[in-house]
């Protein structure tokens, strides 16, 4: 059966099924709960910031969750120490449900996420960044396969490893 992986913006009709998605218990420390992520997106949008949560679907079946941000404000970190916080895109959340892991959905969804980001919905940017837990070797390998490179220095107070992808050439 042919897969039809796509991203769908979170809306009133699909948020319940996306909240129900979860990684394996052993991965709970690697990614925030989807309901928390949706609340965080709403709070940021209410503050005038950009946050766009998506469901990752195979046809009509939800298989994961993704959230993209842009231009994280100064109160979320020091742009002097981590300049990518300003005027760049962020893959804020990325998770594949435990039932659909190790089937290629992560790779297909990351490709779609980067295609969306490269439409520059909030304006041009030089970089896309993300971060991951040091123990999450699967995420590290996936992100590196798309060209993300670890940032040379962890910002103060961070326990996740930031990685950066140059969007423009």
What does this structure look like?
With 169 residues, the chain is of the alpha+beta class. It has one domain (5-166): Aminopeptidase, CATH 3.40.630. It has four helices and seven strands. It has a seven-stranded mixed β-sheet with strand order 1-2-3-4-5-7-6. Helix 3 (105-117) links the parallel strand 4 and strand 5. It is globular. The mean pLDDT is 89.
Summary of the model, kept short:
This protein has a 7-stranded mixed sheet. The chain has 169 residues and is an alpha+beta fold.
Question: How many domains is the backbone divided into?
Answer: 1
Structural class: alpha+beta
Proportion of helical residues: 10-25%
- Shape summary: globular
What is the average of the pLDDT values? Answer: 89
Biggest sheet strand order reads 1-2-3-4-5-7-6
User: Biggest sheet, open or closed, and with what strands and sense?
Assistant: 7 strands, mixed
Topology as H/E string?
EHHEEEHEHEE
Flag low-confidence runs: none
CATH fold group:
Aminopeptidase
The overall strand count is 7
Q: What separation lies between the terminal Cα atoms?
A: 37 Å
CATH class category label: Alpha Beta
Number of helices, counting only DSSP H or I runs of 4 residues or more: 4
Round the Cα radius of gyration to an integer and report it: 15 Å
CATH architecture heading: 3-Layer(aba) Sandwich
Beta content: 25-35%
CATH H-tier superfamily: Gcn5-related N-acetyltransferase (GNAT)
